[in-house]
Design a protein that fits this description.
130 residues; mainly beta; six-stranded antiparallel beta sheet; 46% strand; elongated
């Protein structure tokens, strides 16, 4: 059964490429652990200005077998028009793994509130998400 636990945006943001070797399976369900192509190398691209990042994982043949992106669109909010705070307008955290049969298993979390908690779901795709 595919399930997910709550995810808070930003939890993965401090990871560096060596850490990706340990964390790329983090959201992968146990029943799919043996059915994915394991990445040997990662490329992490960050945009601090936009609070966004993308990560590509490549197998030994340099074929993409892992993909992740995380971003958050923030807005200024106020409850009393005097004090303002930054809230999340929209955000998304997506992780995808290439399966042995050529399909992609995707875990997507959509963030829609100021607590950065989101709705999560799994899906399959014939191609790598972008």
């Amino acid at each position: 059964m595919l399930s997910s636990k709550p995810y808070k945006y930003g939890a993965d943001r401090r990871q560096r490429q060596p850490a990706m070797r340990q964390h790329w399976r983090e959201r992968l369900p146990a029943e799919w652990q043996g059915a994915v192509v394991a990445p040997q190398r990662f490329e992490v691209h960050r945009d601090q200005e936009l609070e966004a990042e993308r990560c590509f994982g490549y197998d030994a043949r340099q074929v993409a077998c892992y993909y992740a992106h995380h971003y958050r669109i923030a807005e200024l909010r106020s409850d009393d028009d005097e004090e303002f705070y930054v809230g999340t307008l929209y955000g998304e955290s997506l992780v995808a793994w290439l399966l042995d049969d050529g399909r992609w298993l995707i875990h997507r979390i959509v963030l829609t509130d100021e607590h950065c908690e989101g709705r999560a779901f799994y899906s399959f795709s014939p191609s790598m998400p972008r």
